[in-house]
Each structure stands twice: as structure tokens, then as C-alpha cells.
Amino acid sequence: MRATVLGLILSAAMAMTPSCVLVAERAGAVELTLSVPTASGLSADGRPLTVDALELGVADAWLEPCAARASLSLIGRAYALHPDAGGNSLGGPRVVSLVDGEPIGALSPPPGRWCALLVAVAPHDALDGWTLHAEGDLDGRRFDGEGYAMQVWRLPLAAPLELSEGAPPVALEVAVDLPRALADVPARPADDVAQALLLALEPAARVRALDE
Question: pTM of the predicted model, to two decimals?
């Protein structure tokens, strides 16, 4: 496995859904654990598509205060990759395996009301690295491909997360409906599957508090 991880947690919201668990605590941390099962589905044109190895380059993750508005402009993206957020940050880039469960990292946000989780994904190597590495089978043909992009995923919480001094641990789940993402992947040449899948992940991602 390449570098192990960072601050997101994907566990299964469905039998074939990647998801991750983020445990937040004031003065402790937000501990992230990733757990994503192998997934199968159909591509956009109805062909069988299975992903059995998936790695994502995560530059950082942090909670967004309710008073702020996320910016997906170039300035916002630059901030995402170099946030000045104190403990409300993963502290550095890493590679997250979307297949094996593993600890990812920790956040320590200050007291306040938080309304969204932001996740910055980017090439794992600034000079020559992929953002997503995927392996699997498309219509009976093996593929091993890479996708490249810089994205900031903004995942709103259904209700504000209130954190105060000494607050008990809070668990958040970021679930990526991988079968849904696969359905947006056209049956392209193998080299393009990972790129299409990378672009389809964000719309398939959701975050929720586990006690909701």
C-alpha cells in the first residue's frame, strides 16, 4: 500500500458503498478511519464494471464553520491545499486506500458551529503523481488506470455540528455511493476509466452524523 492516510472516513452505507468514519472531539481530535468494500455495478452504457483497488490522493480535510461560504474558485482551491486552520486540518497530504480499512488522520477544530466537511483531493506527488489510481474489470477486460485533478469536495451536514470545550466525541460518516459513481463512467478505453471515475466520486459523496 502506498502512504496511509488522512482525514476522511468512508464506510459502507450500502452493501457496495464506500464510506469513512470521522470521529470528532474538542481537545482530542477528529479521528478518521476509512473502510470501503469492493464494488461492482454498470457503466453509463450498461456494461459490467468492477473496482477492486482504489487509491485517492487527499491533500487535506477540514470542517467549515456555518458563518463561512465555501469557495470553489482558484483562490479557494489554493487555500484548500495550504489551509491556515490550526488543528482543523489533517496537517499534510496522503494517499487513502478506498478498499482497506485504516486510520487516516485527525482534526482538532476549535469550539463553534460547523456546517460542512471539505475534502481537498489532489495529485499525491506534486511533480508527477496521480490523484486517483484504480484497478478492476470493465466488461471482462482488466484495467489499471490513473486520474488527475485538483478538487475541493464540499459535503454539507444535514444539521450544524456544535462543538464546545470538553464536548464528547462526535462521529461523522462520509459515504461514497460507488455503484452510483460507476454508473457515470462511460465504457471508454481502459486508460480513461480512472479519470472518469475520479470526476464521478464527488457527486456520489455524502456526510452525516452517525447519531442522526
Answer: 0.77
